[in-house]
Every structure is written in C-alpha cells, then in structure tokens.
Amino acid sequence: MFKNVIVKRPCKAMTEGITSAPELGKPDYELALKQHDTYIEALKQCGVEVLVLPADEGFPDSCFVEDTAVLTRNCAIISNPGAASRNKEVESMIPVIKKFYTEEKIAYIQSPGTLEGGDVMMVGDHFYVGRSARTNEEGIRQFIEILERFGLTGSEVPLEKVLHLKTGVNYIENNTMLVAGEFVEKDDFKPFKKILIPEEEAYAANCIWVNDKVIVPEGYPEVTKAIEEAGYETLLVDTSEYRKLDGGLSCLSLRF
Ligand code: CIR
C-alpha cells in the first residue's frame, strides 16, 4: 500500500517540453492545470497523502516528477536523467525526498550512469529497469547494486521502441500487468497474468495502481473495461495535455 505521493504542478513553459509527437499540438496550459487538479483528487480518493510541489519554470518537463527518483520501501534512489534538459530537475527534488528518507537511505545514480524513473517498474521487491535512450547500461548497473545493498533486486529489460519502460508495461498488483506492443511477448513478463492493450489504445498501458484502485486515462474504453473485468475499481483522469509531451499517469507522481 502507498502512504505518500509527491506531485509537481506543471509550469507555463511546459508548452516547450520534449515530445516525439509534435503533430498532437502544444499542450493547453490552463487545461493541463485542471487535469492536474483532477489527478490530485483521484490520488486522494485512493487514501494517500499528496504533497503538491510548486511549478518550476526553469524546467519545461518538471511536472513529470517520476523521472527524478525511485522511492522504495527500503531506500530512495535519486536518478540521473538522460535527457540533458531534464538532468538538473533532480536538484530541487533532493531536499523534498530528504523529508521522507534519512541520509543513509538515500543513494544516487552518478554519471556516466543515467537513469529515469519512468524506466523502473516495481513488482514487490523486484524492480524491472528499461534500457532506453534515457537509461544506460552503467545507470542500470549502479541501480541494481544499490537495490541489492538495501535487500531488493533488479533486472534489465531492453527496450526497442518506446520512450520509457512504463510507456508500455505497468504492474497493477495481484500478479497482473498491463502490456502493450513490444512487451506482450517478452520472456521477462511470462510469469504474470496479462491484460493486453489494443494498439489503438496503447497510450492507456500507462495506468497506476494506488491502494487497490487503478487510475486510468480517460478516453480508453477497452482498457477501462478490461481492468474493471479483472476486478479493479477504476478512476478516470483525462491526461490529454500530458500525452502531447509523451507523459502519462505514472510520470506525474512519485508513489511510496
Ligand atoms: C520527456 O520526454 O522526458 C517528457 N516529455 C515526458 C516524460 C514522461 N515520463 C515518464 O514516462 N515517466
């Protein structure tokens, strides 16, 4: 169960955030703020305490806090984002994370290692790490070494097409995963029950399990139905403006 969630308000400069899909247009900032409000409300309905950090205009993508750290039950690992424009986002997150973890329980991914939290998927005490354009081999080596020091384990999953691991696969507890595209056939995920995400709803592979409820992006009826049929209560949140920046529900928070 999660007790805490950290989010960061989107900044006006988000319209200049990184995107692989410029054809979707620039995000509408006012609408993004409203969607962020709804996201926070949904999280609160899951019974977590939500810490809302102010917007940081210096970093267009800074609302995607998930990429700055991996917060586990035993330790906090501060990432070293592979995207140059995002690398220094971690600096303002460190003092925030220190409110929740003592110094001895905080570790850092260091250059030349890179790692972004969106590439890390927690399954109990095991952490799958996507090797991507943002997370490199050295980052993964350091990450697994830190996990093992704190009694946890990790393994690498090479990515072919997607930005981050959790763009295409997400664990929703009860041995169940949402899997899209390149992850459907991966051996790493053989032991799990899989909810297959249809190609036209691929974006909705990025849902988050929060204390027995699953928050699902609004506008993906097949995925919503499949998750409900698997026995979960769902909460819908429209994330259209974040999608324009390749961001989804998991990217917008740190849950621990
Ligand atoms: C980026 O390219 O870094 C942002 N525009 C989107 C980050 C999405 N984060 C995530 O999947 N964890």
Q: How does this structure look, described?
A:
22% of the residues lie in helices and 24% in strands. By secondary structure, it is of the alpha/beta class. The protein has helices spanning 29-45, 89-97, 137-149, 165-168, 221-229, 240-243, and strands at residues 4-8, 49-53, 69-71, 76-78, 106-108, 120-123, 126-131, 153-158, 169-171, 176-179, 193-196, 208-210, 213-217, 233-237, 254-255. It is globular, with a radius of gyration of 17 Å. The chain has six helices and 15 strands. The chain has one domain: 5-stranded Propeller (L-arginine/glycine Amidinotransferase, Chain A). Strands 2-1-15 form a three-stranded mixed sheet, covered by helices on one side. It binds citrulline. The site of citrulline has 18 residues, from helix 4. Citrulline binds next to helix 4.
